[in-house]
Design brief:
Blueprint: H1 2-15, H2 23-30, H3 34-41, H4 50-62, H5 69-76, E1 81-86, H6 92-107, E2 111-116, H7 121-133, E3 138-141, H8 149-161, E4 166-169, E5 179-183, H9 185-198, E6 204-208, H10 214-229, E7 239-241, H11 246-257, E8 263-266, H12 269-281, E9 291-296, E10 309-312, H13 315-332, E11 338-342, E12 345-347
Parallel strand pairs: 1-2, 1-3, 3-4, 4-5, 5-11, 6-7, 6-8, 8-9, 9-10
Antiparallel strand pairs: 10-12
Length: 358
């Protein structure tokens, strides 16, 4: 009788998810053997009467039973779990990316572990090891901003050493042999610059991203290509090498104003936000004094005092596609080396206008 009372208390805890239900608990509750319970719950109960199966399944539901995914993974050598290593979840771009990843994981009935590195390479390394220890089947990897090429290849080398399938998202390193999901950034850089050139601007400054990142270099290539088509010489002095953050925009604005530019192309919207606020403090009006183009088209782009012209990345869709590619690679046993590039779209708003002689 004493055991019965304790069991009844535990039943209430199990039903409310406070206490984890095991197969042994269901066996005690129903009176059937652990072997019988296991066969029913694993769909291998061909010779067990339907009435028995119904009792066991009803008990499992009542006791809020969920299989231990780690234990299942050890048996099946599959956890149906992927890890997402993301550089800065507070950045709207990456939170939108994570939303796409999460939604597609849910649609495919996969689990997701999110790791935020705050753009620190050391955390890239530690999280790769943590995810490997947790038995994830694959990793979606967006490397930290402070990664040099050597550091980035260290992260990739570790995943290869651990034999974890992975897909890189957004940020890519030349020489990395893997599946890569991103945007056609060269076209994006070209579209932003061409827009300003069509408006008559000729001295167009840039606040770039880190030189080590291929996506930043691709935007710069697009910028140079547009200038060349308009027979305008490229001036390295009109570049401020930033770090994809608001502070880079502030410092870049200070630098470029002294270069007498009539327009600024910021390589992401966080930089553009910094540029905009600094120009305002310097008494410069956007777009009357300086036209401004950003990149990413994150949500605040259209709610600034002067809505921002920006290159849109379909970041949610990129997250969805990255999950599909990774799961396909896991299922086939081969994450093929390939690049999947989405196409950018220029969203024109009030932050750009025709050039006026000063």
């Amino acid at each position: 009788m004493k055991y019965r009372i304790i069991r009844d208390k535990n039943i209430e805890l199990m039903r409310h998810g406070t206490l984890r239900t095991t197969i042994k608990d269901i066996a005690r509750y129903t009176g059937f053997s652990v072997t019988t319970i296991s066969l029913v719950l694993n769909g291998k109960a061909k010779k067990i009467p339907k009435q028995t199966k119904d009792v066991i399944l009803e008990a499992a539901d009542r006791l809020n039973y969920h299989p231990n995914q780690v234990a299942v993974g050890l048996v099946k050598k599959r956890t149906n779990t992927i890890g997402l290593i993301i550089s800065d979840v507070s950045n709207v771009f990456f939170s939108n990316l994570a939303k796409g990843v999460e939604d597609e994981c849910r649609r495919q009935d996969w689990n997701l572990i999110l790791c935020n590195t705050n753009d620190k390479h050391s955390r890239d390394i530690s999280y790769i090891q943590v995810l490997a220890d947790k038995g994830v089947d694959g990793i979606l990897f967006c490397m930290a901003l402070d990664s040099s090429k050597k550091k980035g290849m260290e992260s990739i080398g570790l995943m290869e050493k651990l034999k974890i399938p992975f897909v890189m998202i957004d940020r890519f390193l030349e020489g990395a042999r893997c599946c890569f999901v991103s945007l056609n950034h060269e076209l994006g850089g070209y579209m932003a610059t061409e827009h300003l050139l069509k408006l008559g601007h000729r001295r167009i400054g840039c606040v770039t991203g880190p030189d080590v990142l291929e996506d930043s270099m691709a935007r710069l290539t697009g910028y140079k290509k547009a200038l060349a088509e308009y027979e305008i010489d490229f001036e390295p002095s009109l570049l401020y090498h930033g770090n994809y953050d608001r502070e880079s925009g502030i410092n870049g604005a200070d630098y470029l104003v002294d270069k007498d530019v009539s327009a600024i192309f910021a390589f992401n919207d966080m930089c553009a936000y910094g540029v905009y606020n600094r120009l305002k403090r310097l008494g410069k009006s956007v777009p009357e004094d300086i036209s401004l183009v950003g990149y990413d088209n994150i949500f605040f782009s259209e709610i600034l005092d002067v809505p921002l012209t920006s290159v849109e990345q379909p970041v949610y869709e990129m997250g969805v596609e990255a999950v599909k590619q990774l799961i396909d690679g896991i299922n086939s046993g081969n994450c093929a080396e390939k690049s999947i590039l989405f196409q950018p779209r220029l969203i024109v708003r009030e932050s750009t206008s025709e050039y006026k002689e000063r």
